[in-house]
Every structure is written in C-alpha cells, then in structure tokens.
Amino acid sequence: MNILSVNKFFWRKGGSETVFFGEKALLESNGHKVVPFSMKGEQNLESEYNQFFVEEVDYDTDSATAKLRAAATVIFSFDARKKIKALLEKFTPDIAHFHIFQHQISPSVFGPLRKKNVPIILTLHDLKPICPNYKMYTNGHVCEKCKGKKFYNCLTNKCNKGSTVKSLISTAEMYLHYMLGYYQNVDHYIAVSQFYRQKMIEFGFQEDQITYLPNYIDTADYVPSNIDENYILSFGRLSEEKGIETLISAAELCRDIPIVIAGSGPDEDNLKSLAADKKLDNISFVGFKTGAELNKLIANASFTVITSKWYENCPMSVLESLAFCKPVVGAKIGGIPELINDGIDGLVYESGDHTDLAEKIQSLWDMGSKRLEMGKAGREKIEKHFSSNSHYEKLMDIYSKVAK
Predict the structure, then answer these.
(1) What is the CATH number of the domain that holds 210?
(2) What are 123's strand-pairing partners?
(3) By mean pLDDT, which of 66-70, 156-160, 184-188, 256-260 is the weakest?
(4) Which of 129, 249, 308, 384 would bridge 354 by S-S if both were Cys, CB 3.0 to 4.6 A apart?
(5) 206 and 122 in a common domain
(6) What is the domain count for the chain?
(7) Whole-angstrom Cα distance, residue 85 to residue 119?
(8) Contacts of 273 (CB under 8 A, 6+ apart)
(9) CA 398, CA 97: separation in Å to the nearest integer?
(10) 163/168 Cα distance (integer angstroms)
(11) What is the pTM of this model?
C-alpha cells in the first residue's frame, strides 16, 4: 500500500513520535511505501520529502506579527493546505494516517485528501478531538466540562496554559473544526487504550468508528534483565499532570528506598525544591535521558513508577519497563490500569494518593526476588499482546477495511 503518514514533529520528541517512526519503519519493512508529511525544523531527521513539509511555526516567539500568524495557523493553515496539494501531485496514497498534527499542520489538509478520495485515519495519542487543551486536565485536576460540545468552558477556565488569549484561540478552533465536520468525518480512529476509545464514544462518536490498537514494543530491542541495583525509577516529562510531586511525598514515607527521577520539563525546578525542602536524601534527579543511557537505567532498576494525575493513554514507559522484565507501580487512571495486571506484573494505586503510593512502593520493595517473577510475567505479556507482529496484523486489517 501507499501510505501518507502525518506527524507535526519529524524528530523523536516524545512517545507519539516513537510510535510514528516505529510504525513507519514497521510498514516499510513489510514492503509498503510510507511518505511522511511534517513540519520543518532544525532537529528533524533527514527526508527526501522535506520540500513538502510546512514551515516551522513558533508559538513562543516575542514577535506580535509572528504570534498572530501562529494563532491563525491553529485554526487553518494555508501553508499546510498548499504543501499537501503539491505532495498529492507527486504521490497518491491509499491511506492518510494522522498522528499528532493539530495546530502546526491543522485539519486544513483534510480537504485536499477528500478531493482525492483518500481515507483518513487518526491515531488518538491524546483527546484533542473532544478537548480543546487535549489533556482533559486543567487547574490541577481532571476536567470533562466540554462534554456536549461546550467548548466555551476552555475559555472560562483558561485551560490553555492559564492564558485568556490562548484559550480563546483553542475555543474558536474547536467550534470551527466541528462546524466544518473535520473530526466527525474522520474515516476511522485508532485508540491506543480502551479508556480513550470509551471516552470518545461517551462524548458522541460511533463505536464502529473507533478501533482499539495499543502501542507496541519491538522486543528484539529490549533484552530481558535480571539485574537489580536496588533503586526505583521514574522517567518521563516533568510536568504538573505527571504527578511527580505525589512520588516525592511518598518518598518522605519511604526514606530508606532510593528513588531515581529521570527527565526534564517545566516542573523540574519546583520538584527539586520540594525534595530539598523535605530533605529527601533518597531522591536523585539525573536529568533527561534517552537511548542507551535510559535503557540502562530501566534495565538496572528494581522496578519503575508512573504517577500520572491526568488521563494517561498507553504510556510507552510502562511497555518499556515490562519489556525489560521490570514490574511497574502505576496510578489507577486513564489507560494505565489496562497495562498492569495488579499483583501479577505490578501494582496499582489511587492516583494522587501519596500514602497509597508509598504503601505499594514499600510492598513491592519488600518482595525481593519475587519482583523478578513479576517482571518475567510482564515480559511474557508484552511478547504476546504488544509485539510488532501483532500490531502490524491488526493495523493492516484496519487499513484494508477503511480502504474498501
């Protein structure tokens, strides 16, 4: 098949890009032609299709003119529409598969694809089709006030980074895109968690419009580890919704257990200050890690912890941990509980409850050698249900049905 794969970042920025590039390589290894459509940027990987990428959009600029241009792009990108038309003159896809594309690319590219009768598939890496700020999390708590297309709540609650202007743009974006039928008329959605699938249905989408297909792990890249260097690991973006302050509060109740926090983000300084104020000598911040460095941290840990307070989807951090034979203590929220068999390959706790988290950390820590058995059970689950072969077969089934 000829597949157009759309993602606004063409470098490994986060979990969604890991899926985007991994799926691209998986399809190409099975003989399909995959053409990317993305945004230009200094960090981009090389691509022979770079000439068709949209110009880089900077939302952090100080220029008033650039800010207005960026705001307009959120709602409708004429540059993206022009570039996709040019690409479609050179390449005729059987499927257009969208990942993260809103704002810098926007649904403005849907029209040219429709004119060419190209079916549109959208993987739900977030909840943008039903939530203006995409997270269903604002002002420190989960929020579903926009249910029933009441998108004005985004403006009322300043859901976009606490800014009235940005929230107004997000609100206008949602009303316009729904008025034009962009999200309603996506041919098929792929939900990488059952939780997201049910949430989309709950907010008005048809059941047969959404298929559950979780993220996957290429197990060949993850050698099972028997090493246990007696520390627990939290890794990922350090932002408020990730709940790392819950882990720091839990660490206060488990002072004899070493905790390593790997990552960076807007909450980094606040979290370091919080740990220092509590005089927590058992917490180490090691900064952003990736590639071999991160893999070694995971492989040598006793177990890992994921402490999200928002509707997490299908976090790669859980899959990667289990692939390395490491059990996971995870928050009972969003799609996280789907990935952890409580008591078998990890433990779950009530999201935001630091006392419950501390109890689960201490419990798993005290299990000693049983942690290895739990890790092996997690690895077996990954091989059976989250492998690249399984993912490819299910993805091709979705493609075939939509193409027909």
Answers:
(1) 3.40.50.2000
(2) 190
(3) 66-70
(4) 249
(5) yes
(6) 2
(7) 15
(8) none
(9) 11
(10) 8
(11) 0.94
